[in-house]
Amino acid sequence: MTPIRKFRQQTVPPWRRAVLKVGSSLLAADGGGLSTRYALGLAQFIASCHASGREIVLVSSGAVAAGRMLMQHLPEDTSNAARQAMAALGQTQTVALWQRLFDRPLAQVLLTHDDLRHRRRYLNARATLSELLAYHVMPVVNENDTVAVDELTLGDNDNLAAIVAALIDADMLLIATDIDGLYTADPRSDPDAQPVDEVHELTAEIMGMAGAAGSRVGTGGMRTKLEAAEKAAAAGIQTILFNGRDSEVVNLLGRDLLHGTLLRTSATRLQARKYWLLHVPAVPGCIHVDAGAARALSDDGASLLPKGVIDAVGDFQRGDMVEIVGDGTDGEPFVVARGITQYGAAEINRIAGNHTRDIRERLGYSYGERVVHRDDLVVTTDCGVSP
Q1: Binding positions for ATP (predicted)?
Q2: Is 209 annotated as a binding residue?
């Protein structure tokens, strides 16, 4: 058998916040259940990242395998309901395994794709993850398999990890797998397979190296990893594929040296997010702001505070994309910006013109000081995004 060719060493691009996805192949024990055999090395990598001031959100598989081990005395049931029950049983086991390896607290966050497509739930999920990171708590994210309908499919957590990376404005998506990276063909059966150290664009040819969609041809689920990298790239996030079973590779990664595949992106995170904000359809209605707020938004890149709001028109809800409108010198309204609102129209009308400290008093609760955060806002002109 021809030896599998190794990847050259390269320097990892700078990053401050990353999502690390760990597949069940790195956590499953030989006799069933979960093992710390490879998780320990990955935990040490995460700890070294924490020590250097970096942030990591962990997307971890393994719940179904852990649940099956707990119920191994029962006859095997491959139905979707049984798999969901196994996931429910195994979730606590998965988090407990990771918690044993860390001194800092961990928090379990269960998400479905619907949570991340639904704008209001998207905002809530992002706020929760951001707050956990601010508390120096490491979130452990998994698909909410217990209530999902058809999400228990090969590699789904790869795509979930890419979505979470965009959700938290990560710089990097790290995918730990049981192979060294992307090859031009399956290195286990093709002696001519060559390692692909770096990818600048996910072309049809590159995607073809991973085999057909939904198959194990190539490198065991590599297709879904490239799909995840494609999603991350659209958000301006680079992706690294590496072998989480190779302790030397993991140790070097902790020193920002990669033996694996780096999938680059030509888009910046800001460009990708601004493009998305510019093109997401706005709901009917708008937020009417005064001249000072309009200037602060367009010239200073500020967030929209209630003090600068005149009123809200329409019946939009928290999490909706709305237009922010000012009054021109000719008295005609014009669109200053568009963004995702943290408050519904009725709530905005109750806090309009007030100081941020008065929000809780007027509403009885608060979603934060900003009506629209600058990260969720894009300034508009006739030709697109303003400089």
Answers
A1: 21, 177-178, 219-225
A2: no
